[in-house]
Amino acid sequence: MEHQSNWWHEAIFYEIYLRSFQDSNGDGIGDLRGLIDRLDYLQDLGVDALWVCPFYESPHVDFGYDISNHTAVDPRYGTLADFQELVREADRRNLKIIVDIILNHTSDEHPLFIESRRSRNSPKRDWYIWQDPKPDGSPPNNWEGFERSCWTYDEETQQYYYHFHYIQQPDLNWRNPKVIEEMFAVCDFWLNQGVAGLRLDAINYLVEDPELRDNPIVEELPEYLRNIFQFNQLPVHTINHPDNHPLLQQMRQHIKTNHPQDPLLIGEIWVPTTQDIREFYGQEDNELQLPFNFLLSTVPSLSAVAFREKIQDFEENLAGLPTTVVLSNHDFPRSTTRYGTPDNSDRIAKLLATFLLTLRGIPFIYYGEELGMVDTPPDRLDEVQDPRGRLRWPEYKGRDGCRTPMQWNEQTNAGFTEGTPWYKIAPDYLHRNVAVQGQDPDSILNYYKQLIQLRRDRPPLRQGTLTLIGKDEQVLAYTRQTDEEQLLILLNMSPQSQSFSLPEFADRPGQILLSTHPEKDSATVGENLPLMPFEGAIALLQH
Ligand code: GLC
Questions:
Q1: How would residue 1 be classed by pLDDT, with cut points 50, 70 and 90?
Q2: Which is the catalytic residue, given 23, 74, 201, 375?
């Protein structure tokens, strides 16, 4: 399969949390065949590339992010032949496949770790990070991660091993060249299956401080980490060590050399600033083509002022670089849950859709976002599936809430499975589902389709520059423009109607192309523009 090297510049991505997308065999867990059955839906929605979450052999402590065999498909998800069929069938529909690759750690049941753990003299001992206890028997330092301590003691060999994530996810030692070689071979294996790119999991966690210095303790975590972590230290020695960069350069070079189409490398990085994100592109495009930008998702409330500030920062510090637009994923509450209110959830879902698909950048839709799906967290401890939810219950309920099964129709289990779903279905599935919304021209789903079509039809939405307009407290406004065309995007982030005044456009009336409030379609935009509560509108300005 041929992939052009820059196909992704104007693409829309869709994240498939496979476990929750479509079950085909009644075991209650989504699988590859289920996904193949739904490719027509995704083609019809209009997206271009699918990021498929892990489906490799795994004990499933972290639902596949703990791999015990990198090149085998877990029988719960299907077979390698199913995966190959997925790639072929997706290609027939012009959909690219991106696989999720976990290079930072393995499962503790991976043969490499089993061997490493066997003895201090194991030839694989230095493939993981082993350290002696302090003289009093305590862990080598204060590092905390998914669990409390990042260190787990091994009685047999009387050393601690390091794991940023769960105890069952020991970190590989990326300072060992043999590890590098082995993990590059994993990338090659999947790229040789015809995938168009890799989503690199936790890619700024590969190496830690070699001196194992303690992390500094803070009263409160900075904004960018609050979505995903609960510890009270700054992970300066565990995450984002500068030595990650030469490794990523080596990885890009290896992949480019062995796969001349220069497959897309998307990196999961949680970093505080746009300057940090910038670093991951390297010099003259020699690291990742697309480091994730999660900074929008850290804005705590629906606020025109706060979002404007972020966009301003992106425009200043990521100018000229391709960047992602992400409001939701499988690790933190959905945007509808973060910003919506029960009364206005649907209106806010459409407003957020307008935002997601009109900003400068490459949008990532999280499955079900196109229906306005909301989180359904566990009510009781015995419902919790994500171990993180059990560790800190009840103040933190884990990540199950944003991973509820996809809502296909009003039948049993929302059409997700004929068996018992691995986690409960959201109670709103009777009206919030693909079948019902497909019939309703004003549904969130149809609004997404219209927006995606508009993005195809109007080059400024894919290629245009972005200019922020005004400083309104309630309305976020910006233009997207190419030499030929200028679009104005207005997002009323408040529950009140607003009369937005646009003196700079007084002599250039425009026309609304699409609004979250369909009665406004085709309305004329003049100096004063009335906006309905939570309205999002896209207008074409006259030259
Ligand atoms: C990434 C994944 C997350 C997983 C973690 C450990 O952050 O997105 O789901 O738990 O890595 O692999």
A1: low
A2: 201
Domain 111-162 is in which class?
alpha beta
- Domain 465-541, classified CATH 2.60.40.1180, yes or no: yes
The per-residue pLDDT for range 399-450, each reduced to its tens digit, is: 999 999 999 999 999 999 999 999 999 999 999 999 999 999 999 999 999 9
Q: Which of 268, 287, 346, 375 is catalytic?
A: 268
For a ligand 1 pocket test, name from 61, 163, 331 the mutation site with the most ligand atoms within 8 angstroms of its C-beta. Answer: 331
Residue 39 near residue 14, CB atoms below 8 Å:
no
CATH 3.20.20.80-classified regions of the chain: 7-105+176-206+235-451
Read off φ and ψ for residue 267, nearest 5 degrees: -115, 135
Say whether pLDDT at 190 is over 90: yes
Round the average pLDDT of the chain to a whole number and report it: 95
What separation in Å is there between the alpha carbon of 124 and the centre of ligand 1?
25
Query: String of b and e for 147-175 (b: at least 16 CB within 10 Å)?
Result: bebbbbeeeebebbbbbbbbbbbbbbbbe
Is residue 15 lining ligand 1, measured as CB closer than 6 Å? no
Q: CA–CA separation, 150 vs 107, rounded Å?
A: 15
pTM over 0.85: yes
How many Å lie between the centroid of ligand 1 and the Cα of residue 201? 6
Ligand 1 midpoint to CA 63 (Å)? 9
Active site residue 279: no
The CATH classification number of 7-105+176-206+235-451 equals 3.20.20.80
Which residue bears the tokens 């609960």?
A: 230
Q: Where in the chain is the domain with CATH 2.60.40.1180?
A: 465-541
pLDDT, tens digit (0-9, with 9 covering 90-100), for 5-28: 799 999 999 999 999 999 999 999
